[in-house]
Amino acid sequence: MATLKIGTIHLHYEVYGSGEPLFLNHGASRSCQAWNSHLPWLSEKYKVIVHDARGHGLSSAPRGEEQNSWEALADDLNRLMEHLDIKRAIIGGVSMGGGVSHTFALKYPQKVKALILSDSVGTGINKPGVLVSQKAMERLRIKREYIIHKYGVIEWTYRSIASGMAPKSIIEQPDRQLEDLQRMAMFSVNGAIYSYRLITRTKIPGIELTKNLTMPTLIIIGEEDNFLAGAEWLRDTIPNRRFALLTKAGHATVHTKPDAWHKAIEEFLDDLAAGKDIREERIY
After folding, report:
1. What single string gives the DSSP state of each residue in 195-246?
2. 129 torsion bin: left (phi>0), alpha (psi -120 to 50), beta (else)
3. Domains along the chain with CATH numbers
């Protein structure tokens, strides 16, 4: 456990194992602890670096959308690489962390040996008909932020479960509801507000340049994920990619279908290390 100071921001990070560096970026409302179940096997071959994104976990939680933008999160990752004197690495992330990884690859392509985009929300593309109108989304945002400011993140979590707004996997599984409440209890008010704005309002900057990314890329998505259309756009846009579709899985496959996620990652990394052509589609 360590802390990197970036201006007024304190960034909590952890390093495991040795070997080729692998950076992993967690999703919204989570922390670097999200990777705990995967660290034992990943750290056998790789130097795994995880951190709490600003607004999450033990890192600082600044106010303001500029302080919590895709660019700010990607620049934090760049500063962490510089701090650890790592010139080039495998960069990956899930959900919001996929968007951060995508942004980083566009901004610092020379520093990315390979890219892992799991359940990524950075395209802003959802299944047709999933998103309601922008006006309705804005009303929901105002209501959400009012409740969080007045009553706290936990109260919003209770209400989202009770109203059916929480993910289907959480609503249908009481044990996951408890896990969700415990996780949200560690979530800062600023993190809850600005990460939600980030993933519902914006596409990553420079997304039109995605076609120019040449590094080997693994795209992972659950077949029931609302962001499946976005993952298919990545599949059709990135030239040197592997597309891994996880059956009977929704969002955040690293948590909802961990064994299949493990297999998809391990096979990609092993093929990459062996110098194999990774361009194909696989179903898990």
Report:
1. HHHHHHH-PPTTGGGGGG--S-EEEEEETT-TTHHHHHHHHHH-SSEEEEEE
2. left
3. 2-128+203-283 (3.40.50.1820), 134-199 (no CATH)
User: What is each CA distance from 227 to 15, 120, 123, 231, in whole angstroms?
Assistant: 30, 7, 9, 6
Q: Contact, 32 vs 83, CB < 8 A?
A: no
Residues composing the chain: 284
Q: Which structure tokens are listed for 275?
A: 């110098």
Q: Partners of 4 in the beta sheet?
A: 11
Q: Residues 250-278: pLDDT tens digits?
A: 999 998 899 999 999 999 999 999 999 99
Query: What digits encode the pLDDT tens for the residues 111-168?
Result: 999 999 999 999 988 776 655 566 777 888 888 899 999 999 988 888 887 777 666 6
pTM above 0.85, yes or no: yes
- Helices first, then strands: H and E counts in the chain: 11, 9
Which tokens belong to 278? 């990774």
227 Cβ contact partners less than 8 Å away, ≥ 6 residues apart: 119, 120, 121, 123, 125, 126, 127, 221, 251
57 vs 264: CA distance, rounded Å: 27
